[in-house]
Amino acid sequence: EASRAVAPAQWVRSVATFWTTRLSLHNILLGVNFFGAMHTASGAHQAVTADYIRGVLERPNVAEAVRRGDESAELEWDSDALEHVLRIGHTELFFPTPHSLAVRVDIAHSVGCAGVSIWDLGQ
User: Fold this and answer.
1) Single pTM value for the model
2) Which stretches of the chain score pLDDT less than 50?
3) Which residues contact 123 (CB under 8 A, 6 or more apart)?
């Protein structure tokens, strides 16, 4: 099954490598997502802003469940996408964190991109 993250690390590396072999490296900035993706059991999916993600994480019932390690709200590192995912019931919320952003910055550096740029909703 394909990852449901916004930009799984393997895909990011593949796209960055493709373009760095075809264009001058000083012209390429790797876009890193500053937004997340929410997927529900019904198959619905939507992009979500950082404010939305923060709001979910700050809900007392969600925050407490994550702290307790309760299965009703699990915060995990997706080792395939190299991104964090919050699972609440049958809903998955993938979102960037400092750790996942560092992975993407490392990818940009390793393939020779000129740098990174922010890819955010509402721009």
Assistant:
1) 0.84
2) none
3) none
Six-digit token string for 4: 């449901």
User: Can you tell me the distance from the alpha carbon of 5 to that of 85, in angstroms, rounded to the nearest whole number?
Assistant: 8
How many angstroms separate the CA atoms of 77 and 56, rounded? 17
| Structure-block tokens of residue 66 | 């994550």
Distances (CA, A) of 3 to 11, 27, 114: 10, 29, 27
Specify the length of the chain in residues: 123
pLDDT of residue 117: 94
pLDDT given for residue 100 in this prediction? 95
Q: pLDDT averaged over the chain?
A: 88
Residue 20: how many other CB atoms lie within 10 Å = 18
CA-nearest of 84, 82, 85, 77 to 107 is 82
DSSP label of 89: T
Local structure of 1: helix, strand or coil: coil
